[in-house]
Amino acid sequence: MNNSPEPTDQSRRQFLGTAAGIATASVAPGVVLHIAQATSNSYPVTEAKRWGMLIDTNKCLEDCNACVQACNKEHGMDLIHKPEGQDQQKFDQQKPTWIRKVKLKDNLTGRVTNLPMLCQHCEKPPCVDVCPTGASFKRADGIVMVDRHICIGCRFCMMACPYHARSFIHENVEVKPTLTPRGKGCVESCNLCVTRLDEGGTTTACQDACAQAGHHAIIFGDLNDENSPVSKALQELPSRQIRADLNLNTGVRYSGV
Known about the structure:
The chain has 8 helices and 11 strands.
């Protein structure tokens, strides 16, 4: 009996190697196997970058909602429809909103400022501190997010957020976007279009929409890079944090407020 290993079939090995690199392979008549492939963006997030933005309210127009509409489309909020029989006002109050336009009035001068309000991506986020499960967390690059797999819907984070920047999903969701899946009973908020960044992108949907509208009020980028557009803009324009008294060191700053 010959117990020696059989010689390697180089042609078979080459075929398997080729098959592993393609998107699909036929394994039986009528059956197609979809093969997952490792992508080039499989790298750890580090503190080398801190993503953030400067919003120049002098360029933000009252009647413009381009940033809101772009955010809704990017993350599938435009696919959420009012349940049959629900009151319209109640639906408007409960539907998820990642960016909303707000007005600030200076009590001394009477000047009214319009600004987009979103998650401020704090260095010391209160939402993370109060979350009992760790669903609310901050990435090493400064992006504050919610892990929907372990969110129990307690809404402590919503109560802790001084910017009212989080939304709770009250109803069942029929259409669930691949990039931003959502389900009833979870909390969500702006994630600075993290899927774009993890794929090598450098802009957010709201920034792109604002630029396309001709306003260029939103400047996004790496706050740790002194040569990035957002860092240069922060050096040139006076800016402030909303609720700076809380010492949260927000990643979103405003000029003209």
